[in-house]
Specification:
Largest sheet: 5 strands, parallel
Low-confidence stretches: none
Bound molecules: [cytidine-5'-phosphate] glycerylphosphoric acid ester
Helix content: 25-40%
Number of strands: 5
Distance between the termini: 44 Å
Length: 143
């Protein structure tokens, strides 16, 4: 059984997210999604429209997702790989070369898939005139 792991906020779930998850699952037999918690999103400079539980429930409803775990910090990835016996970490191409992921090559395979152009959570919010992912965090980001 080949086990795949990916990370993300997955807010306002859209077809770019689903395309990533579909391709990630197709690389193995079991897909774990480490979902950014609301607190970690603040560290990432993001404010999700949906809270963690809602985003988790939506991911768990997808046929491609086998398990959702919390992503609480930048440092947990190597432990996640060991704990869940991960063979491959898969991320969208916007993370290619990032020091947040490159070191994982010591622990497992690492694959970047091309991002789906034309859609993003930020674009959806802007098109709907909602605050962007990093708007409204001003006072919080000053901590
Ligand atoms: N994605 C994509 N195409 C898009 C939008 C997103 O392929 N149009 C991919 C991203 O590359 C990522 C996943 O979908 O692999 C989730 O995207 P986000 O929720 O924006 O995740 P991000 O904020 O990049 O969080 O520790 C890593 C972070 O938690 C990743």
């Amino acid at each position: 059984m080949k086990r795949i792991l990916t990370y993300g906020t997955y807010d306002l779930l859209h077809y770019g997210h689903i395309r990533l998850l579909k391709r990630a699952k197709a690389m193995g037999d079991y897909l774990v999604v480490a979902l950014s918690t609301d607190d970690f999103n603040i560290l990432k400079g993001k404010k999700a429209y949906h809270d963690y539980e809602t985003r988790k429930n939506m991911l768990e409803a997808l046929r491609y997702v086998d398990l959702v775990i919390p992503e609480e910090n930048w440092e947990q990835k190597a432990d996640d790989i060991k704990k869940y016996h991960i063979d491959t970490v898969v991320m969208g191409g916007d993370w290619a070369g990032s020091d947040k992921f490159e070191y994982l090559k010591e622990h497992c395979d690492l694959v970047y898939l091309d991002r789906t152009e034309g859609v993003s959570t930020t674009k959806i919010k802007e098109d709907l005139n909602l605050p962007g992912e990093d708007e409204g965090l001003g006072p919080l980001l000053k901590v």
